[in-house]
Amino acid sequence: MLAMNYRGPYRVRAAHKAEPEIEHPGDAIVRVTRSCICGSDLHLYHGLVPDTRVGTTFGHEFTGVVEAVGPAVEHLKPGQHVLVPFNIFCGNCYFCQKELYSNCHDTNPSATAVGGIYGYSHTTGGYDGGQAEYVRVPMADIGPTVIPPDLDVDDAVLLTDALPTGYQAAEMGDIEEGDTVVIFGAGPIGIFAAKSAWLLGAGRVIVVDHVEYRLDFVRRYAQCEVVDFKQVGDMAVHIKKMTDGLGADVCIDCVGCEAAGSFAHTLLGVKLKLQGGAAIVLHWCINAVRKGGRVSIVGVYGPTFNAVPIGNAINKGLTLRMNQASVKRHLPRLIEHIQAGRIRPSDVITHRIDLRDVADAYHLFSSKLDNCIKTVLVPPSALAA
Amino acid sequence: MIITDAQQNPPRSQAERHAHIVGWGADLDHAHRPAYPMERTPPRLPHAVPPPEQQHSHADVLVSSERPRITPVYGTTLPPKGLSGWLRRQAFRHSENDLRHWMMLLLADRVNVGEGLIDDLSRGHVPNLYAEMGGRAELRHNPMGAARKAAIGIAALALIAVALKRRR
Ligand SMILES: [Zn+2]
Ligand SMILES: [Zn+2]
């Protein structure tokens, strides 16, 4: 089959590899119909995630048709079109019993800090991802969700990570009626966090980025205020000026470890890799939020150390909340939102690219060319559909 | 009668002010928020979930020292091999709490890139670096950038050529 193949930082290609097989009685094999490139795939693409082995297939956001199931699978049937949450989780361990699906303890042997994730290095379990024609889906009775007949597959694929992560980012901010919410990052996650902040009853939503076309998009799509951080001097001071000197009620980091905006952090974290990426957005969140405010983090950071102004967080009495999204717990409500017309996630898809051109797709997204917001890869075997 | 500003423009409620935003406040009530409270038991899965059976395979899987056993389910792709594999094995002697664990894995990743090149060549495949780095997309959507990179490349080659000539 054809699959994306990682060769090293900034180098990927589409190549043939063996089709996946059922390796555990609870597995399914899924024929991919759509897969996305995610902003967090770029951290892998740039070589920042430890234990990313050459030859890996990325892709944790995908939909597909069930081709085969293992003997222990009771509820999922071949032929069903499913969306597959990016978390691989057992539904039974200590953490899954608390609905912390992203923190599953039983699907990732290589690390205890993070659960299993498709196509996201051996640090998250060494599973191949969905940027391929076929993919092995473990725990097939638990993760995959059959796509309802009235749900478009392009909307469905955004339910595998981007929309639930944006929603959880806003939810972890504990937004109350009328709150001022500042969101750092105008990529798909930031865009969906902005939309979700309104659903949760925010009074004001401000999105910060430095790429003009992304700011234009989020202003139109999520009807929020925007700030270009390159146009303001001090980001935290600027937010205070916008909020009567108090600061925002909630700040949300939808950027993670490759943030632009500070030469020192970029040099230490991204270029020299002396800290787990550039923590500049964490500085902005902690310093721009009001005292007693809440900071929510969904941007990806590496497992190594970061320079974070924790003293300010203590003195200001902040609540910090963070996690990878537990996608499955959000799906029923988010599907309701889509069906009720409150949000149409597929609107963020700007590019639809043949899997054979995966190298161009990564470069386009990584370099923010051609006004790219979200890229969907379509395998040749799904092009007709 | 004096009509005050407030009477003429009574303060509008949040809902009125945000009436133009589709779905505003739909999840204002905590009961509608899927992750409220933070930890929720029992999980709302569509059916009962038995504990997973143990996966068996011949794959060589590196296991975190923070866990007493291999997990019931795991990935079997790309077992460690070569020098990078040796480095990864060394890394797994340290816990996730130990910085050496992560730094050695990152080092192994860099070594692995060289191994990938050697592997390609040994199969008689010369990797097309231009295509792998998205050269076509760069040329199409950022022709100025592509030209600048090409010019820098040519200038660097010319400098090397001049330096080599001088040496002789
Ligand atoms: Zn993602
Ligand atoms: Zn679990």
From TrEMBL, chain A:
Q: Which organism is it from?
A: Variovorax paradoxus
GO MF:
oxidoreductase activity; zinc ion binding
| Alcohol dehydrogenase-like C-terminal domain location | 188-260
- InterPro entries in UniProt: ADH-like_C, ADH-like_N, ADH_Zn_CS, GroES-like_sf, NAD(P)-bd_dom_sf
- Keywords, ordered alphabetically: Metal-binding, Oxidoreductase, Zinc
Task: Please indicate if the UniProt record lists Oxidoreductase as a keyword.
Answer: yes
Its protein name is Alcohol dehydrogenase catalytic domain-containing protein
Q: Which Pfam families match?
A: ADH_N, ADH_zinc_N
Q: Which Gene3D superfamilies match?
A: Medium-chain alcohol dehydrogenases, catalytic domain, NAD(P)-binding Rossmann-like Domain
UniProtKB/TrEMBL annotation, chain B:
Q: This chain belongs to which protein, by name?
A: Uncharacterized protein
Q: Which domain of life, per UniProt?
A: Bacteria
Which taxonomic lineage does the organism of this UniProt entry have?
A: Bacteria, Pseudomonadati, Pseudomonadota, Betaproteobacteria, Burkholderiales
